[in-house]
Amino acid sequence: MSTIVYITGVSRGLGKAAAEKFLQEGYAVVGIGRSSDLQHPNYAFVECDLSDSSAISTLDFDLLADEIILINNAGQIGNVRRLSDQQQPDFEEVLQVNTLAPMQLTWQFLRSLKSKQKGKIVNISSGAATRAIPAWAAYCASKAALDRFSETVQLEEIEKGNTVRIWSVAPGVVDTAMQEKIRSASPTDFSSSATFLDLKKNDELTTPQAAAEKLYRLIVDEQIDRVVCSLRELD
Fold this sequence. Notes:
With about 240 residues, the chain is an alpha/beta fold. It has a single domain, classed as NAD(P)-binding Rossmann-like Domain (Rossmann fold, 3-Layer(aba) Sandwich), CATH 3.40.50. It is built from seven helices and seven strands. Strands 3-2-1-4-5-6-7 form a seven-stranded parallel sheet, sandwiched between helices. Helix 1 crosses helix 7, helix 3 runs parallel beside helix 4 and helix 5 packs across helix 6. The protein is globular, with a radius of gyration of 17 Å.
């Protein structure tokens, strides 16, 4: 069975590690984002600014594969600062990349699937979707919305008798550029600063490669039935 895996945000971190893992396992991978330095015979890159909905609308999914997998990985933390202290609120940009872009790509993905094609969608969420973290207002809201969106669309596909599988998965605290930005925030602005500094200091962060291994198992083996889940469940 031929499979194509589409992954957003492949320049670094979990997105790049996931692309490398699927390529290692023999899959064809298409990266989507602003940049990528991956080189592989089975890899193609499509440049697309996910903060631009009109650019997203031009993306196409391969109709020839038996199975298509979409991993909406791209995301951003936004301003790590209480909303009332921000000179310019960040919610529009954060919600566009973290929520609206995956929603739009999910719609385009589902509309492109043919009756005999198998489809899987993974939206990368966060533990912040289920709890409020001061200085992350837009980020928490964006991931909470992504969780509920994923659950709703999965129910819709079940009602239609389709076999599409959807997950909204929290990857855990992964050692990425986003974590670097979080650790660089002023303790004055971010009351949880010490917690994230200690995670790095105590070597408690998950590597992108380890998270990608679990993500691969989740998608290929379908080890979790629930839509909203965590990679920590695969420990």
